[in-house]
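Working notes for the structural subgroup meeting. M.R. asked for a predicted model of this chain before we commit to crystallization trials. I am recording the input and output together here so anyone reviewing the notebook later can reproduce the run.

Input as submitted:
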Amino acid sequence: MEILQSRDLNHLLNVMTIINSSLDKDIFRQTLLEYLLKMFHMENSIFFLTDENSKLTDMMGINIEEKYHRDFLSYYYQFDPFHLIQGPLNGNKVISLEELVSYSTFIKTEYYNDFLYPQRIHYKTVVYLKYEKTLWGIIGLFRPKQYGNFSKKEKSMIKILAPYITQALKNIELLRRIQLENSILKMVDRETTLGLIILNDQLELIHMNRRASEFCKFLDSPSNSQTDSDHSKNHSFQIPNFIKEDCFRLREQMKQGFWGMAYLPVCRILKISELKKYSVCYQVLPREMNPDKQIFYSIKIIELTQPLNLNLDALEMDFGLTKREIEILTHIFNGLKNAEIASKLCITEITVKKHLQHIFEKIGVDSRTALIRRIIDYRSIQS
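Returned structure, recorded in C-alpha cell form:
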C-alpha cells in the first residue's frame, strides 16, 4: 500500500466528518456521493440501500439518468458481473471490475457497449457495506476511460472508509427506529386508564405503561393475587406467554396475506379470580402509522370487573367493623394496594396494615384472597 499523503488524510477526515454528522439517510448518501466524486475524480456514482432480505432497493444516483436506471432494472442487471456475486459474497467489501472479468472480453459485450459506454462508464469499483451477515448497502464508483482505473491507494482509502460508512447507516437506522417508536407511542398511549404494551416485529418489548406493568406483575405472582406485602418495585417479571402467542398468531395471519384481519382488534377475556376479569385486545398498528412497514403490536388491557356493591351498614353491624375499617375494606375490593390506600386516606402504610389485621380477625380470615371470597359469599346471602 502506498503511503497516504496529507491531502489523502484530509479527504478521509472530511468523509469522517460527513459520516459523524449525518442524521438522515438521504442527506447522508447525497452528501457522501458528491464528495466522493471530487475525491476520486469520478463523473457518476450510485448508492443502493437494502431491505431486510438484503435485496437492493432505494437507489440514489449522481449524474445517473432515470432512463438508465429503468433499463438496468428491467434488462441489463442480468449481465452485470457484480450482480452474479451478490449472493455468495463473503468478507470482501471493495471489488473492482477487473477482479471479475477481463476488460478485453468485457468491452465487447452488449452490457458495456449499449449500457455503460453511453454513460461514459468504463471502470467500476463496488463497495459492499456489510456487517457480519447483513448487507446494509452498495456504493458503485464509476470512471470514464480517460481518467484511468482506480489506483491501489484509492482502493485502500475506500476500504478504510467502508466500515465507517456501514456504521453510519446502522446508527441512522437506529435513530430512525427510535423516532418511529416514540411517535407511535405518542399516538397510541393516550388512554391512561388502559394497560398498554407495545411489541416490535421480534416480539420484543418496546413500551409498557404502569397499568400494564401491574397487570404482568399480578399474573407473575405465585398466587396470582395480592398479598399483604406488595410486590417490590424491582420485582422481575415476564410478559405473559399467552400475549406473545397471540401476537405470533397475528403474524402468521399476515404471512398468509390476511393484513386486513390483523388491523382489527382481537380480544380475549381473562378471568383471574372471582373479582378480577380482564379484556386483552391485540392489534397490528396500521401502515399509515408505520411508514417503514415494520410490524408493531399494540396490546390493550382493560379491567372489566366493576367494584362490588357492598351493604356497608350490614357489614358494620354483622362484623363489628369501624368506619375506617369499612373504608379500607372498600378500597381492597377496588383493587388498591396498601400504599395506595394509605395515600388516599392520608395515613401511614403501617396504619393500613394494622387496620387490615383487625379486619381479618373480625371476619375470621388470614389473607386478602380469603377476605374477598368471604365477603362475596356474604353478599350472595344478603342478596
